[in-house]
Amino acid sequence: MALRGRLAAARGAWLVFEDEAGFSMTPPHAKTWSQRGRTPLVRVRGRSRRRISIAALTCCKTGHRSRLIYRPRHDDGRRDGRKSFSWRGYRDLLIAAHQQLGGPIVLVWDNLNVHKAADLQKFAEARDWPTIYYLPPYAPDLNPVEGIWSLLRRGWLSNVAFSTPEHLVQRIRRGLRHIQYRSELIDGCLAETGLTIRPT
């Protein structure tokens, strides 16, 4: 991590971590308070196969406020439909991040097969602003985006009975916006990986 951090700083680039997670209509369980002897109940309207995938980027750079950039992908409900991002979805996310951050990026992500798709590699090689590194296999503790998912599931999504897929999307967006505006939460997720950004 220290080597990647020095490389990003040397190039004046943003150090960007990526991960994707799926969320369903079934709410995650979390501890809560209740009166003694009264078990709290969360009523769910039945199970649904509908889900939403979110690809998120945590972005850090010395002397700048940490950023969170994300894109949702809705499941169309068809059995044969794609439920996760394609290489084009990741390409579009990287282009949007480059435009928002206004500079080169050093991207660190896992070894998902779509991340290594030939078309995505050709896209990256044809441009001078992205540099891509891969995390070791089975190393979620090195990716700060995992901390973002944990904050979301333990906070805005826990013990909520989602009435519609739109209700689920609304709660996810509300939680991610809250995190976006509080860079100290992103910094905390970065610190959990052992990565620190020094102020200038």
Widest sheet, order of strands: 3-2-1-4-5
At CATH's second level, what is the architecture? 2-Layer Sandwich
Structural class: alpha/beta
**Tally of helical runs:** 6
| Distance from first to last alpha carbon | 19 Å
Basic shape: globular
| SSE pattern | HEEEHEHEHHH
* Structural domain tally: 1
Described by its quaternary structure, the protein is single chain
Care to describe what's here?
This protein has 200 residues and is an alpha/beta fold. The protein has 6 helices and 5 strands; from the N terminus they run H-E-E-E-H-E-H-E-H-H-H. Helix 4 (145-154) crosses helix 6 (183-192). The radius of gyration is 18 Å and the shape is globular. The mean pLDDT is 82. Residues 15-168 form the Tc1-like transposase DDE domain. It comes from Streptosporangium longisporum.
List the helices and strands and how they pair.
Layout: H1 2-11, E1 14-24, E2 51-60, E3 67-74, H2 87-101, E4 105-109, H3 118-125, E5 130-134, H4 145-154, H5 165-180, H6 183-192
Parallel strand pairs: 1-4, 4-5
Antiparallel strand pairs: 1-2, 2-3
